[in-house]
Amino acid sequence: MHPPTPTGVSRTAVLIAQARAREGRRRDRMFIDQYAGPLAAAAGWIGNLSRAGMLVEDHFVLRTRYFDDYLTTALDDGIRQVVLLAAGLDSRAYRMLWPDGTRVFEVDLPDLLSFKNEVLARRGAVPSCERVPVPADLREEWPGALRDAGFDPELPTAWLVEGLMVYLTAADNDRLLARIGALSGTGSRLAIEHVNQAYSEHPRMKPAHNRLAATAASWQSSVEDPVAWLAGHGWRGRITGQAEIAKRNGRDIPPIADVTVMGDARLWLVDAVQEGADR
Ligand SMILES: C[S@@+](CC[C@H](N)C(=O)[O-])C[C@H]1O[C@@H](n2cnc3c(N)ncnc32)[C@H](O)[C@@H]1O
Hints:
By secondary structure, the chain is an alpha/beta fold.
């Protein structure tokens, strides 16, 4: 018997795990996530992806690779405190090579984290860092829970906000960024993902929105200029396009990164350093 499977917005984490599992089976894979398949299977594989679902799978794997590279660079530059906000079924704490002394905090809703902890423990999975799960709602008083779990705001931190912002309102996202800023020691970095309105309203996304709404995971927000938005919160951001990530990794440009398919629609991938810091 598996623990209760993730529901509501937490069910979206299964889609990402599936995409990561499929990527691992490709000859030209950009990463291997050996836990993605077992986690998705335990949660109940989501079948019959819509065209939109298949389209965004390309994005999910490109973004995984992009954020893996972001974290690796932060580690190479000496950062040893990492916070994955809305960690979902991401198994980076188990699959990446973390230098000794690295602590990885995973914040997500309590049920999702209980499910993940139990499935991974049953498989005998051992984190390759000091992994600290922090059950909390990111719209509420999560900084206290993070500090209580041992997070040190004086240290430089690599923050990752992957696959979350669309599910929060613009006001919640502003509060999230303000809190991240308040908890960031000198030398911290931040990487985020969000969408613009044209993406959110793209006709191809309609079936996906209908399915998300049915699982209480409707999108709540978008951002038109993520670099300006981050600047307002003290971060100097840099956008990387999916086509560039595909090219770096020897992949053809997928439809999700093709302007003839997507027009003005953008899925933003942005990494940032604190204003005034060298990159
Ligand atoms: C699309 S998944 C992304 C998970 C992970 N970052 C990844 O890329 O595999 C969205 C995640 O956000 C989490 N989430 C959504 N709303 C949340 C909230 N208010 N507080 C904490 N976590 C939340 C869900 O539980 C889910 O794990």
